Amino acid sequence: MHVFVTGGTGLIGSAAVAELLGNGHTVLALVRSDASALAAEKAGAEPLRGGLGDLDVLRAGAARTDGVIHLAFSNDFSSPEALTRAVEDESAAIAALGEELVGSDRPLVVVSGTPAVPDRASVETDGAVTDGPVGGRGRAVVAALDLAARGVRSSAVRMPRTVHNQGDGGFAGLMTQIARQTGVSGYPGDGTQRWPAVHALDAATLLRLALENAPAGTSWHAVADEGDAVRDIATVIGRRLGLPVKPVPEETFGPIGPIFAMDQPSSSAHTQQALDWHPTHPSLLEDLENLQP
Question: The NAD-dependent epimerase/dehydratase domain covers which part of the protein (predicted)?
Fold first, then answer.
């Protein structure tokens, strides 16, 4: 397939582009800057200049290709207002991509987060998260899945709170960034809450498998580690950076602090069996050993 990838030069996107190219696909990558265009070209993809707000560019990219993997998100968690804008921009982008694909039976792969379910690990049949700080992302993904009834082979790959590579990425990456800024490797609450995780290279493989094989209207879990205790994550970060490890207020983590405080283990048993996806790369705690002081 010739695949349109948004966010193709980010942590997950760069891995996804390499995975696609390594398995016989070609890639058209949305890029926002000259540097990103050069990175896309170096990776072997064709760059298409534009951002999530350029809806005509998104439609054109989808029209030119055999399928779409949407990964772009601003990841601006600096304030509630910035987060709201990021969610609104992504929602409009997903809607534009989906409308371009209506009636074509082409694949649209979007990403969301694994849900939190009380007292157990979430599974693929659990509903999407449609409330809270990033509930708008969940609602946009639900709308994309509903396009299955309109001739779009849409699917959602639910990413865990940490998608990592070389010790960076996701919630653990934010914890590391805040630790460097504050001099404390902190965690909210008592630290027993669990976060799922996956290596970016394993996530990229699942994105390709969903593009190639996922039935319309289905959701999948890109989960390798079902749930690492947040205190254990903070402990490794603190040891690697030479910083004390201690509880800190939820507000330390900004507008997504409430999500940081949640217990949210997740299972990918169905995904692994149905799509023949088997994570092989280092776990989060192993990967965090790559952190440099």
Answer: 3-216
* Start-end of H helices in 102-223: 135-146, 170-182, 200-213
Q: What is the pLDDT of residue 77?
A: 64
Could you give the domains of the chain? 2-162+196-225 (3.40.50.720), 165-195+227-264+282-290 (no CATH)
70 three-state secondary structure: strand
Identify any residues that bridge with 187 across adjacent strands, giving them in sequence order: 247
Q: Residue 173: which of 293, 12, 288 has the closest Cα?
A: 288
Residue 65 phi, psi dihedral angles, 5° rounding: -125, 170
Furthest-apart CA atoms within the chain: distance in Å: 56
Summarize pLDDT for 176-218 with one digit per residue, the tens.
999 999 999 999 999 999 999 999 999 999 999 999 999 999 9
Q: How many CA atoms lie within 13 A of 289 on its CB side?
A: 5
User: What contacts 130, CB < 8 A, 6 or more positions away?
Assistant: 138, 139, 142
Contact indicator for 196, 134 with CB cutoff of 8 Å? no
As a three-state string, the secondary structure of 34-69 is HHHHHHHHHHCCEEEECCCCCHHHHHHHHHCCCEEE
Average pLDDT by stretches of 10, the chain with 293 residues: 96 97 98 95 97 96 98 77 84 96 98 94 94 85 97 98 93 95 96 97 98 98 98 98 97 88 96 98 97 91
Torsion of CA 240, 244, 245, 247, to 10 degrees: -150
